[in-house]
Design goal:
Elements (H helix, E strand, L loop, with lengths): L2 E5 L2 E3 L5 E8 L7 E7 L6 E6 L6 E3 L7 E6 L4 E6 L8 E8 L12 E2 L3 E5 L2
Length: about 120
C-alpha cells in the first residue's frame, strides 16, 4: 500500500501562515485524489480540503474557506495545504489521505494515510 508523508507542521502565532506538504513515500500520488484532515484529541477527524487528480478541482469545508488553499504540483509530485490567518482552534494533527475514485470529506472513504503532523497555533 502507498504510504503518504506530511511535512511542514510546527508552532505558529495566531494570524500567521504555514504550508503543509503531502508526498507519497516510494511511490506517486499523481493518480490519487488527496484530502486533508485534522484531528483534535477527543474529537472526530474532520475533512478540511481535497483536490482531485484529474483536473485539480478543489474542495473546502465551510469552516476553512477563505483561509485554506490546496494545490498540486505535478512536477514535484506534491500536494500542498496553504493555511493563512491561523487561529488557535486550528491547532490539531493534520493528515493527508489518498482516494482513487474522487474527492470525499468522509474519513472512511480514503484508502491511504500519512502519520499526521502537529500544527500548534498559540501566542
Amino acid at each position: 500500500q502507498v504510504q503518504l508523508v506530511e511535512s511542514g507542521g510546527g508552532l505558529v502565532q495566531p494570524g500567521g501562515s504555514l504550508r503543509l506538504s503531502c508526498t507519497a513515500s516510494g511511490s506517486t500520488l499523481r493518480y490519487f485524489n488527496i484530502g486533508w484532515f485534522r484531528e483534535v484529541p477527543g474529537k472526530e477527524r474532520e475533512g478540511v480540503s481535497c483536490i482531485t487528480y484529474k483536473d485539480r478541482t478543489e474542495y473546502y469545508d465551510d469552516s476553512v474557506k477563505g483561509r485554506f488553499s490546496i494545490s498540486r504540483d505535478i512536477a514535484k509530485d506534491t500536494v500542498y495545504l496553504q493555511i493563512d490567518n491561523l487561529r488557535p482552534d486550528d491547532t490539531a494533527y493534520y493528515f493527508c489521505a489518498g482516494r482513487g475514485v474522487d474527492c470525499s470529506g468522509s474519513r472512511s472513504q480514503y484508502d491511504y494515510w500519512g502519520q499526521g503532523i502537529l500544527v500548534t497555533v498559540s501566542s
